[in-house]
Amino acid sequence: MTEPTSIANPWWRYGHVWLVVSGPVIVVVAALFTAWLAIRTPDPVVDQDYYRRGVEINRTLASDKALLPAVQGRNHAATPPADSR
């Protein structure tokens, strides 16, 4: 009696191998894409006078009549109550 011989298929012929390999491959490709994107479009540098510009913007907004009640309410909530003796 002769035993049947089984011929093994190459590893790429099995579907579960691709399922296992595809996860890490997708992560590596996504990491490379993220690195490329970060290098291609760097964040802008913060201006040295960012604080002064912010104060000027707040002054402009505070001088607007539509925002005046909101600014007064904010300032009222931030002030401690006066001592009542």
The total tally of domains equals 2
Helix content: 55-70%
* Percentage of β-strand residues: under 5%
Order of helices and strands: HHH
C-alpha Rg (nearest Å): 33 Å
Treating each run of at least 4 consecutive H or I residues as one helix, how many helices?
Answer: 3
Low-confidence stretches: none
Mean pLDDT: 81
Taken from the alpha-carbon principal axes, the silhouette is elongated
Give the termini separation.
113 Å
* Helix/sheet category: mainly alpha
Largest sheet: none
Number of strands: 0
Topology:
Layout: H1 15-40, H2 50-63, H3 68-78
Overall description:
With 85 residues, the chain is mainly alpha-helical. The chain has 3 helices and no strands.
Care to give the gist of this entry?
Helices cover 60% and strands 0% of the residues.
